[in-house]
Model the fold of this input.
Amino acid sequence: MSTSKKIAVVTGGSRGLGRDMALSLAKKGIDVVITYHSNETAANGVVNEIKSIGQHAVAIQLDTSNIKMFDGFAASLAERLKNDFNQTRFDFLVNNAGTGIYGSVTDTSEEAFDTMLNIHFKGVYFLTQKMLPLLNDGGGIVNVSSGLTRTSFPNVSAYASMKGAIEIYTRCLAKELGARQIRANVVAPGAIATDFGGGSNKNDEGKRKAIAGITALGRVGTAEDIGGVVAFLCTLEAGWVNGQRIEVSGGMAL
Done:
């Protein structure tokens, strides 16, 4: 599995963690397809950044919570692979797209629960299913989870539960896709300073101080702490890493 002429698909690649994942993959010599939900301008900005690194990139719109879109997305992706990359398949799928909706176990609504389910579990499950015919043997899948599957905090029950499901699903993927030499792993970020979930990890100084206080390395994480780990999992050096959960949290709540 060489990184030459490899292609990765990164969902939610227009900002935050996804943007840094896409850029980190490009720095490894991997071409990138990113998806974006609504901000085409930001997505095109990432595409241009990747091109400035010397790799090829395109952006395709996708609502990862809308399973009915997936057939159309698969067709669009196949067309772009052919026309823009002169390929029929890609090599790495990074299921990163997500959002945060927080609420207590007593107050979380069915609507909020279903939103979390569709984006973070059902959408990932069925998008991966649709992508498997386009994924090269010997490739890889990286699913993004959360440090919240290991440590519990108030008001995250729905979100954390979906991420827990993703971790079990990833182990099943690794087992079932082993015959195709496709690896599947989880990257579980800790608290990261992005706009995710309202941006409190970036803007709430009280929360930032509390996070730093329970993290061995003494600070809140940044997007740049995560992308390189995802990119590593898409290289030859990670060829024997399979079915694993890698937490990237600076040693949070040890």
Notes: The longest strand covers residues 135-144. The chain has eight helices and seven strands. The domain at 7-248 is CATH 3.40.50.720 (Rossmann fold). The chain has a mean pLDDT of 95.
